[in-house]
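Page 37, continued from 36.
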């Protein structure tokens, strides 16, 4: 009884399950096709994403790689992009600086020190001073604006904690220098008192280096009327007779 029932049962199931099996096979085949197509597509998309990521991150990867090789990199290389530079009083190359390209002013070539582009000198001409207008026919003006606190009091704009809005806002339009007026995000500015002095010919070309002070610098060339470099700098670190770190920006 058991056997027959089993056989019957088995047969019925067999017949049913064969058709079912065929349908399932078809469905599975379709499913498989779609699965394969889906996998191929997703692989392509993933590859595309990885490629894109590499492209976007390439500069970062490259930079990281270069920075990893610390034996071969100068302070200047690292800081140049941030407009922060350290000048070293005792270094043959690194005690002068060129605002035009953000690199040190001297170069050692074939065993000799050459001037490349020295807009500003630290300590070389006068101990404890910045000196500007030092190349051949160049003349310079440097104005000590005082500290961020001094500027804040004088021009009465709103500062952030730790200051910085004053320095950030100083800019130039034609031959006038402006600084923030009121709120930093209101886009309102006032003319700086020091503006006219900066554009007068022949003023002091040397000023003592003071930690935290801002300076305006203008360099012209009496043999080339078209030449003019105007920059603002902020002394952010200073060790007397040794080094000074500045944040700088050309005003164009
Ligand atoms: C660093 O750079 C030097 C010179 O280019 C090279 O010989 C050295 O293998 C580099 N080191 C690393 C860790 O990449
Ligand atoms: C790194 O060092 C190698 C040799 O030591 C030199 O050829 C290469 O110019 C240096 N790179 C930089 C960016 O200074
Ligand atoms: C100031 O510069 C603008 C262009 O930026 C120019 O149109 C204008 O004539 C200049 N003014 C003076 C007085 O040079
Ligand atoms: C900034 O601008 C807003 C609206 O434009 C004005 O209400 C506010 O008084 C201004 N603040 C300062 C300090 O200028
Ligand atoms: C150094 O700068 C100060 C002003 O900050 C100036 O009085 C002094 O004369 C300068 N030194 C020289 C030798 O020019
Ligand atoms: C660096 O200085 C240049 C011009 O001197 C300016 O265009 C650039 O915005 C400055 N970058 C920063 C981060 O201050």
């Amino acid at each position: 009884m058991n056997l027959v029932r089993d056989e019957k049962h088995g047969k019925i199931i067999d017949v049913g399950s064969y058709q079912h099996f065929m349908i399932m096979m078809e469905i599975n085949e379709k499913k498989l096709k779609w699965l394969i197509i889906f996998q191929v597509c997703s692989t392509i998309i993933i590859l595309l994403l990885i490629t894109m990521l590499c492209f976007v991150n390439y500069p970062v990867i490259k930079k990281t790689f270069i920075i990893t090789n610390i034996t071969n990199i100068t302070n200047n290389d690292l800081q140049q992009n941030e407009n922060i530079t350290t000048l070293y009083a005792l270094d043959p190359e690194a005690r002068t600086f060129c605002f035009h390209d953000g690199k040190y002013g001297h170069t050692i070539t074939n065993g000799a020190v050459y001037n490349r582009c020295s807009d500003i000198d630290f300590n070389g001409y006068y101990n404890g001073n910045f000196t500007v207008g030092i190349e051949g026919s160049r003349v310079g003006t440097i104005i000590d604006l005082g500290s961020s606190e001094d500027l804040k009091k004088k021009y009465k704009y709103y500062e952030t904690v730790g200051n910085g809005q004053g320095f950030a806002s100083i800019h130039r339009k034609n031959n006038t220098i402006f600084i923030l007026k009121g709120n930093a995000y209101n886009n309102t500015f006032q003319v700086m008192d020091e503006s006219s002095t900066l554009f007068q010919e022949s003023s002091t070309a040397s000023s003592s280096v003071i930690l935290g002070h801002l300076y305006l610098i203008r360099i012209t060339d009496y043999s080339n009327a078209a030449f003019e470099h105007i920059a603002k700098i902020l002394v952010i670190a200073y060790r007397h007779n040794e080094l000074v770190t500045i944040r700088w920006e050309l005003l164009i």
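Residues 75-250 form one domain. Flag for discussion at group meeting. Residues 58 and 64 are 10 Å apart (CA to CA).
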